[in-house]
Amino acid sequence: MGKSVCQWRRAWRTGGRAALRSKGPCGCGLGPHLQAELATGLDEGPASHGGADGRVWTATRVGTPIGRKFRLSCSVSGVTRLLHRMGCGVQMPARPAAERDEDAITAWREAAWQEVEPSGRRPARSSASRTERA
Question: How far is residue 84's CA from residue 86's CA, in Å, rounded to a whole number?
Fold first, then answer.
């Protein structure tokens, strides 16, 4: 049996059906009142929480104020789920990132893009199996 099945079975034996009930959504464990407090803090922007000007919030960056303010450690996926529950979604920034280097992007496009761009030909059929041929 898998680890989860063994844990569920042990919980069922000790606590019955009640022990198997959901304990609520995962993701940082912030209740609605703390989520509202977090939203207010995020409205101040990343610079007010120690980030550089011109930066945008990312799930990784949101984890920092959660840790400082609420003394909670959240994974990036936990922060992402929390932000989704709070009504936040993936957004494109209104302006380019401060660390964006247009000259380096142009140089890369001119030098490396020809090697990366697909040729338009379909690849030959092949087999991923070690024992069978295509």
Answer: 5
